[in-house]
Specification:
This is Major facilitator superfamily domain-containing protein. The protein is mainly α and 478 residues long. The protein has 22 helices and no strands. It is globular.
Length: 478
Amino acid sequence: MTVPSAQRGPHASTPAPSEKTSGKASVSNESPIDTDSSEVEEFKEGGYGWVVVASVLLVNAHTWGLNSSFAIFLAYYLRTGIIQGATPMTFAFVGGLSISMALLTSPLATVCIAKLGTRWTLRIGVVLQAASFVGASFSLQIWQLLLSQGVCFGIGLGFCFTSTVGIVSQWFTKRRSFANALSTSGSGFGGLIYALATNAMIQNLGLEWAFRIIAILSFVVNGAVSLIIRDRNKAVGAIHVAFHFPLLKKPEFWLYMSWGFFSMIGYVITVFSLTDYAQSVGFAPSRGSIVAAVFNLSQGVGRPLIGLSSDKYGRLNIAGLGTLAAGLSCFFIWIFAGKTYAGLIVYALFGVFSGVIWPCVAPVGAEVVGLQLLPSALSIYWLGMVLPATFAEVIALVLKNPGVNGYIHVQIFTGVMYLAAFASIWLLRSWKLRQIDTLSLDDEKEEESGLRGQHIAPAQIPAAALSYFRAMITVKRI
């Protein structure tokens, strides 16, 4: 749902897509060496934006999709002892580092976009990511794997991801959620392909050549995308500032961060643990890779559906309900039915809700801070996700016990994290409803009510709490 300009709030105003914005000091200026900011005089919904969607889809398939294949590598490492000096805990750090370094790199990549442009920032990531897989193919000790598949891959992933995550929103208004979800579905389809292909390559070609083939594929595809992708940073007045600290003064932004924090913990545990869980309850490695493939397939197919639903029924509504479904599926499907292969496949199909954060994070962020501040907001947002991304799988392995029921504490913990994320975004939804109701008042009533730009007096707290509670149970598209 696109909130009318009168309902966006003072910090969420965005120039109309057809308007031309004058260059300002705070607006990123593309370097002359970069020609990816080809501005169109008249904005048209979609248009070249569909090429951008396809481009970002391919990047996601060959970055986040590749990262999902670490579940296959992790299961192989844990059962072969091929890496010297490694423990299950250090392997968990390899997977966590790949995500946390990507998020930690976000502010630096944001600055690079402002200085070098989108295409060159993407190309830096392409080179680093390919180099990381080549380095991993020669790794024999755990510190080598931590530097290659963990740190180097994570930095490359961060440059690729940060340079592309906000572009799709610039090309769409009415179909923004669907376009974003379609582009993020690439990580699901990429994960599906690489979950099956990685297991097959390891079995038939060996670990070393599996890494090298992946390096070649990611370099060719992502490098080709860097030649055709375009942004509209100048047209929308995008502000590429690594840290826009005034955002930290807004309670609604902290609710947005809280939703991501708890969701990230649940997502990382689920995506990295399913293959090992399948083998821990007695299934063959090939079946474990199929479970991971189904999990990624559900995200590839489901994310565009989430986007369509978000545009129709409200972005905050779908993000909240999807997060709730992820938590409930942990308790009622993974725990009770996950010991059977059919039950585990059913839970894997619910993976679309486990990763609901990815298709919803940019559209929800635009609702909270506006399109202009979205790059800066996401820069802080991803930085806040570093801790959960780093330690989520480590926590899972600590909670894991030997035996068939060894994952029960992991399952409960994952479900609780998703429920905490749901509580955060539902409170954010209440704030948005209350903001819309407040902005519908005329200026005189706003001043009298003290609801806008003022602190709530102690005597007003019960009434304010009641209004938030009413907003939480209000059925409305938002």
